[in-house]
Amino acid sequence: MATITVPQVVPSPVEDAEALMKAFQGWGTDEQAVIYILAHRDAAQRKLIRLAYEEKYNESLTQRLQSELSGDFQTAMSYWILDPVERQAVIANSATKCIDEEYPVIVEIAYANSPAELLKVKQAYHALYKRSLEEDVAANATGNLRDLLLALVSTYRYDGDEVNSGLAKSEAKIIHKAVGNGSITDHGELTRILGTRSKAQLVATFNYFSDEHSTTVTKALLHGEDPTGYTRALRIAARCIADTNKYLVKVLRSAMRSSGTDEESLSRVVVMHAEKDLRDIKEEFHKRASVALEQAVAKETSGDYKTFIMALVGSH
Amino acid sequence: MQQFLAVAAQASSNSSTAAPPAPPLRSRPPRREQPSSVVKEATMADEHQELTKAFSGLGGLGVEENALVSALGRWRKQPEKRSQFRQGFPGFFTPSAAGGSNVTIERCSDEYVKHLKTEFSRFKNLMVLWAMHPWERDARWAHRALHKKHHPAAVLVELACTRTADELLGARRAYHALYHRSLEEDVAYRLKDKETSLLVGLVAAYRYEGPRVSEDLAKEEATALAAGGGAKPQSELVVRVLATRSKPQLRATFRMYEKISGKPLEEEFGGEAPCMREAVRCLDSPAKYFADLIVEAFKDGADKQAKAALTRVVVSRSDADMEEIKEAYLKQHGAKLVDAVAKNTHGHYRDALLAMIGK
Q1: Mutate which of B146, B181, B212, B225 to disrupt the A interface (most A C-beta within 10 Å)?
Q2: How high is the ipTM of this complex?
Q3: Ranges of Low complexity compositional bias (chain B) (predicted)?
Q4: Torsion angles phi and psi, residue B94, rounded to 5
Q5: Which residue in B176, B201, B208 is closest to A132 by CB distance?
Q6: What angle do CA A241, A93, B223 make, to 5 degrees?
């Protein structure tokens, strides 16, 4: 369920475009006005506003926002203003540029989407960058991590419920053997299984694993320390398969530690899910962290950025 | 199959004593002024040869349905003619004592009947494939390549590299619907050998389809591939490039590679990496690749898969790049494709192929 609130009576896109131009004019920008409008429009409405603005003022709203705003607020807003599909393509593209650190984002995008949605993201990527997401991932990552990331973004997974339990059992065994006592022995098989099997099949496989070995796949992967990031990517993948929302809650909590907020990750999760399923994520957050997401955000962020994120999260 | 052809050709030339033996695969010789008994024998020999050819006894693909039916009509109530035919076609019939008595019957060779089954069904297979949705067709071919013995992985390379990004995706969708698994998982699971990562990469690709090419990138990747002096390119690098770059980009890279290293990339891969070689050929010039597949189907000693490739290529490319394939065929093999097909195939199968190839 989405968390953004859209007013009962929505002004026309032209009215919104005019109001935005008014907010840009004069000394400084009226950030509150910008948030008041844009944070309370859904994707279709935002698109119409972009078109109306461009037609009326002969400039791109996206670029104007980039020049008028700054800092974390500007980053978050530049993601928010885009179509959901384009947004993920843009986020994926910037992740490929420093893929050795940002690979968790790629894993997240591969799993937060259904196969059909992931396909749309890849098509948007073609249109925006005149290259495929797979090329950029393959060209920038190396070794086993690359094989895993490439498998995750390329595979067009079977989306149905059919599960082969014999296969689930045998692959649970393979996973157990490959993970060993900490260091991974068979990268090929792990990449193959996690990279190509359907979600339903993997859930069944993980269940067999935990029945047999009294520990989850995720926990079993905790031991190995791997500088290449392969093990961590595998763990993220395993977590997302088991429960994507739980993983996203973890990302949010790590982003809002009192030692310093990771606005990139916070913005990404909130912006990517505000129109989708942030409400479910909020519930999970509350369960795990014993505070509401709004309270955590209010505590760890400030200024216009805080106002914007709070509006998206669903409180005024 | 070879033995059938050799024996049949031998037999048909043996049975014509007076007239010169007609060469196989030629149509009936024109009637000449000759003594009537000689004419009678010559005609008999011709009829036998025609019927043998119709039963796919003289090589070529498919059966000559019309000739078979007209023989039925002509030889109605003439069992001795049929008997002579059986005696004259040792590839199809072998003499065998009937239950210990002195009477011999010419019994059907089971091997030959199996061969006939394949030849009779070529037309049927073509029509069924033609009627199918292209995505389902490709999905079924891919599934067969993975799950039946003696089916080379080259078919997968062909499908993955010659279809457009959306066609390949469609085939993967159809695969989901038909087999309740993804093509990627089946390839990864069933082909656990040296070239698996290449094949998985190729079938999982969703390439950028636009024309934009970066010459700098082509140079960079060609240089990286050619690095190492005379040594072969590293396979990991090859897989990454072949499986992810767009086709126009790859062609630019291939050209650059040939400039840098002096020979085409496909020649770097020998028998130990057949799929890599096929992939380069398919990505670089699919029309040439298909023309070569067709020529293989017509060769003596072509196996079952090579012959089946003819139907597959014509049906799948008839709407796509058949004109380019015809050009490539003429250029590579010095003959028109329509002539080669007319010469090497029979009956409804031939007519169907020619209709799909076009003028």
Answers
A1: B181
A2: 0.84
A3: 1-19
A4: -120, 140
A5: B208
A6: 110
